[in-house]
Amino acid sequence: MQRGTIDAFQSDDATMASPVDMKGKRVFGVPTAGKFLSQYGLIPVTVPWDDVEVALQTGELDGVAWCGFTEAYEVGWADVCNYALTNSITGAWCGFYFANTESWNKVPPHLQALFRSTIDQSHYYRNVWYWAGEAKLRVEGGKLELTSLPKEEWDKVTGDAEVFWDKIADRRLRKSQPSVVGKSDALRCCCIRLSSR
Description:
The protein is α/β, with parallel strands linked by helices. It has a single domain (2-93, 142-196), classed as D-Maltodextrin-Binding Protein, domain 2 (3-Layer(aba) Sandwich), CATH 3.40.190.170. The protein contains 7 helices and 7 strands. It has helices at residues 31-37, 52-58, 69-75, 77-80, 101-106, 109-140, 151-174; strands at 2-6, 26-29, 43-45, 63-65, 83-85, 145-147, 192-196. The strands form 3 sheets. The protein has a 3-stranded parallel sheet, with helices on one face. The protein has a two-stranded antiparallel sheet with strand order 1-7.
């Protein structure tokens, strides 16, 4: 049995060919990813963050629907997994900063400028550390074998994602909460890296 971080599933060295191959896989991940992927039979599992690596090694988890290549290498999951799915299953990482207009207007201009500079640095960090890491580790990382769902199967997942996010947005609108989640946010490579048992 293979274990790993999710964006696809590998089992007994067979490449994931369809979302139905997720059936019965126990996966740690962000709540919305688990909710979305459970329609294919995936079983969302919650364990403490610090226990994910060991849970992958012991078979408590089959994968992770959380991260991209950068996180997988940074936290050690790439050390205990074999595969990375390149299809974008778990959503996008984007940085938003919100401020109450009335409160913001009370902040002196020099402190507004200071805060804006921290936002700029955060975006720079994300662009350099995270996205550059994603590209470099995909090509040069060496620990994870890349795999992908076939186009026709991936098209089904993206269609299912549109339906899923439309339902989420509709619920938020009914609750009079602005929706800050876009449909395309559901589609980002997190990785399903699978380690051998």
